[in-house]
């Protein structure tokens, strides 16, 4: 081996060992999860294939409410998603997957208030064996394929799962999150609510959010199927919403 090649090899090795910054880590997770949309991380920006640049870290130190209202892409990873963990009451304000950078998701799925989301919606069978019919889901970024795979796998599960899954309480819906002005993930066509009569929601426990008492009836085995296909589950949140599953592959990586 020539000395020049040795230097090349050592440089590569050092580059591989250099600790990534939080921005680089967040950017790379998004690039890996949305390869059709994210082109590269450059100078602290996430550069989308459309040319849009989104600042990964806006440099602001945020309270919980501020982060929820206006998260940058880096903030989305503030709480690590506990994939496959036993179901338990989450710690105060631990809401992994509940921070959503609207500019980033609008760029992928469209802004429903401008009529941009519906044209990307496709019909996906929802546990048809159990009479779930079809639901609308975004065809972008692999979301509809992921939901179809979840449905197939759930149908192979025990028949008692039917009562948790059917009827679905809804997928696409261009609406704001209760108590806020932010558009829900349902407005991007990437969320499904399973049967609300078998579900629990933090606002039903305490609308003020000060004395939330965790409650969940959805089997963890159902959630595990969703998580395997890139969905986060609302029962993992302090502000829980146990019927809610949302396609967020970047959180499951
Ligand atoms: Zn929901």
Descriptive overview:
With 253 residues, this protein is of the alpha+beta class. Helix content is 28%, strand content 13%. It has helices at 3-17, 22-33, 64-69, 102-109, 143-155, 162-165, 202-205, 220-228, and strands at 38-42, 45-48, 53-55, 121-125, 134-138, 191-193, 231-233, 244-247. A hairpin with a 4-residue loop joins β2 and β3. The mean pLDDT is 92. It binds zinc ion. The site of zinc ion has 5 residues, from β6.
Beta-strand residue percentage: 5-15%
Unique ligands: zinc ion
Helix proportion of residues, in percent?
A: 25-40%
Shape: globular
Q: Rg, please?
A: 20 Å
Mean pLDDT: 92
What are the low-pLDDT stretches, counting only 5+ consecutive residues below 50? none
Tell me the strand order in the biggest sheet: 1-2-3
* H/E series: HHEEEHHEEHHEHHEE
The strand count comes to: 8
Task: Kindly report how far apart the N and C termini lie.
Answer: 38 Å
Structural domain tally = 1
Largest sheet: 3 strands, antiparallel
Please give a handful of descriptors for the protein shown.
8 strands, three-stranded antiparallel β-sheet, 8 helices, binds zinc ion, 28% helix, 253 residues, alpha+beta, single chain
Task: Please give a quick description of this structure.
This protein is an alpha+beta fold and 253 residues long. It contains eight helices and eight strands.
Task: Give the helices and strands, then pairings.
Layout: H1 3-17, H2 22-33, E1 38-42, E2 45-48, E3 53-55, H3 64-69, H4 102-109, E4 121-125, E5 134-138, H5 143-155, H6 162-165, E6 191-193, H7 202-205, H8 220-228, E7 231-233, E8 244-247
Antiparallel strand pairs: 1-2, 2-3, 4-5, 6-8, 7-8
């Amino acid at each position: 081996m020539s000395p020049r090649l040795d230097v090349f090899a050592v440089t590569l090795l050092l580059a591989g060992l250099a600790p990534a910054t939080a921005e680089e880590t967040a950017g790379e997770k998004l690039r890996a999860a949305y390869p059709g949309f994210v082109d590269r991380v450059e100078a602290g920006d996430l550069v989308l294939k459309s040319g849009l640049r989104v600042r990964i870290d806006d440099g602001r130190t945020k309270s919980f409410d501020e982060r929820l209202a206006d998260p940058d892409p880096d903030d989305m990873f503030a709480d690590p998603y506990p994939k496959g963990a036993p179901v338990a009451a989450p710690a105060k304000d631990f809401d992994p997957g509940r921070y959503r950078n609207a500019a980033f998701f609008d760029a992928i799925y469209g802004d429903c208030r401008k009529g941009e989301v519906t044209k990307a919606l496709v019909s996906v069978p929802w546990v048809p064996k159990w009479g779930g019919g079809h639901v609308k889901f975004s065809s972008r970024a692999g979301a509809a394929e992921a939901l179809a795979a979840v449905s197939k796998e759930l149908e192979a599960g025990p028949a008692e799962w039917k009562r948790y899954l059917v009827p679905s309480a809804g997928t696409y819906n261009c609406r704001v999150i209760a108590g806020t002005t932010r558009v829900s993930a349902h407005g991007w066509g990437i969320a499904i609510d399973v049967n609300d009569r078998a579900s629990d929601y933090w606002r039903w426990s305490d609308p003020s959010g000060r004395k939330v008492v965790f409650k969940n009836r959805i089997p963890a085995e159902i959630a595990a199927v969703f998580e395997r296909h890139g969905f986060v589950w609302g029962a993992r949140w302090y502000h829980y919403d146990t019927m809610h599953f949302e396609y967020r592959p970047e959180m499951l990586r």
